Fold:
Amino acid sequence: MADEKPAAGSNPGAPPEPGDIARWLSVDLCEPLADSELPRVSIVVLNWNGRQHLGPCFDTLRALDYPADRFEVILVDNGSDDGSQAYVRERYAWVRLIENPNNRGFSAGCNQGALEGLKGPLGPSQVVFLNNDMHVERGFLRALVAPIVRGVAIAATAKMYSWDGSVLNSAGGGMNFYGLGLQRGYLAAPAPEYDRPRKTLFACGGAMAMDIHAFFAVGGFDEEFFAYYEDVDLGWRTWVQGYEIHYEPRAVCYHHHSSTSRRVPVERLRLLQVRNPLLACFKNYDDTNLRRILPAMLGLATRRAFLCAGIGDIDSYRIENLATLTAERGPKRLWDRLRRKVSGRADVARVGMADLVGLQDLLGRWDHWMARRKTVQQARRRPDAEILQLFLRPLWCIEQELGYKELQRGFEDFFGISDLFEGLTTLQEDPRG
Structure:
């Protein structure tokens, strides 16, 4: 890979100085596309028991300012039992419906939809992924695909508002050093700073476009993530392989935030939200930086698991607090043994257990994830020094508990993480929500 020419929309040269980051992140507005320049596009919408959202989504897609013969809508239904499939067949027969017998997850479902588009009659050059709980403005698609057509990026993400348009949901993305993603502008009031295009670490999987051949070339969404952070991982991996991703503010959509996830048991979401950032970091940092980040990443994840476990009185585990050793024999000794046996299992909160399972998914499959990492690193065409400037707020501390904050500061100092990210904070406030 090292001898190949850079891919279209890439510039993997020497990284700019820290003072030049704001200028480096900024990009020019793309010239609007004429009708003759508009690419063929497959719009992939994933659905799992979201029938109530499909009408507003499809109605606005039908009204797009885009030639009807140059785009298609593919609905991948992940085993819904709310009548979504019949509703689409009856009301939106122009939508291509792919029915799965069960929930394959966001990653696999989106990959499936993109592949169906590639195999279908339209022969698209771009794929768009759109959440089912979205409605879009008429110019959404025309603006979203423009950076890719112009050759300045290989993928683009939209400006996402709340459903009523009162606040932003996303204006590009970043993350902290241990992989926790953030949406720039989340819950912020509309402002001129969000009207300018820029480079972004990742395109939000709920409203993004990508060259369809590049999407498959970089590996698509990682299906082992199932859902959550698959877009962070894809974006990071896309930059690693020498491509660029841009935020396009003229592509405007509106979002019912977390309309599906709020119906899922919290510990099942927690597992994905803890595990997947670990996996993204493990795959995408270069060797030098992973050796620096990994101990801190695992230590902080362990601390979070402890905080969520709800263990209660930890002094009862300390031998220092054992006043005496019982030497009684007979019935009392038997009773003490029985009592210890019955009470020998501590209650642990399910969200704390979810954290531990997430850690185990990485640490218990070390050889597997090392092999997955090797695949990503062998395709590397851009240095970490450039990519780290896209994180926006790399030293963001997710927990405000004093012990956690102390531990993160200690790790930053001891492992040189503060030095690694010195001058690279371009988002001045912690993410909201």
